[in-house]
Design brief:
Number of strands: 5
Helix content: 40-55%
Shape: globular
Largest sheet: 5 strands, mixed
Radius of gyration: 21 Å
Distance between the termini: 41 Å
Structural class: alpha+beta
């Protein structure tokens, strides 16, 4: 009888042990600052419109995060300006403008497609403006937003957050403003998200 009870207990505990994965600092994630984490759990994706892996990530992983992230965990995106030379800054501006004007989803997809599918070469802000206009944004509205205090403030914050994250590449996930998931340690996007959700609960 005692053996039966022990076997039953072992079977009950086995799934719990299997699911209680302990990810390791320095292997699966890196602590990027010694200060406190954000007040609320959050996952931030750092990306560039010029990055083909980010384009794939936007189509496959981002929708999965939005659909499956744990309750109470916020998701946001930050555009980095260190890819694309001077146009990296303009693409960060474009991202900020699009989200200030509440057309982020449409413009993000249009910029990714223009760069990677249509092989369009953006050389200045006017080229970016033309894409906004082609997607229904009034040119003067774009101009006003592009030079607005709110957009400049968002660009400054994105640059500061990028520097604080100590990135070596994109796409990259930072959790609670404190932990950077190490892409090199993961074998799949599912594992990447498992680590992010684990860190969000820390």
């Amino acid at each position: 009888m005692k053996k039966v009870l022990l076997m039953a207990a072992a079977l009950l505990l086995a799934p719990l042990a299997a699911s209680a994965v302990e990810y390791q600092e320095g292997v699966h994630y890196t602590v990027i600052n010694d200060g406190p984490a954000t007040a609320k759990p959050e996952i931030t994706e750092f990306f560039s419109f010029y990055c083909p892996h980010c384009y794939s990530f936007s189509k496959t992983v981002v929708p999965k995060i939005l659909a499956e992230k744990p309750a109470g965990v916020e998701f946001s995106q930050t555009h980095v300006d260190f890819i694309g030379k001077e146009m990296g800054v303009e693409m960060s501006r474009a991202f900020a403008v699009a989200h200030q004007l509440n057309v982020g989803e449409k413009i993000d997809a249009a910029l990714f497609a223009a760069i990677h599918d249509k092989k369009q070469h953006f050389t200045n802000r006017d080229d970016v403006r033309a894409l906004f206009v082609a997607n229904g944004v009034d040119g003067k509205t774009f101009d006003a937003a592009a030079d607005s205090f709110m957009v400049k403030a968002q660009m400054a914050k994105m640059k500061r957050d990028t520097e604080n994250a100590k990135l070596t590449g994109v796409p990259a996930l930072v959790v609670n403003g404190k932990y950077r998931v190490e892409n090199g340690a993961v074998k799949s996007f599912d594992e990447l998200l498992d680590i992010a959700y684990y860190l969000a609960r820390k």
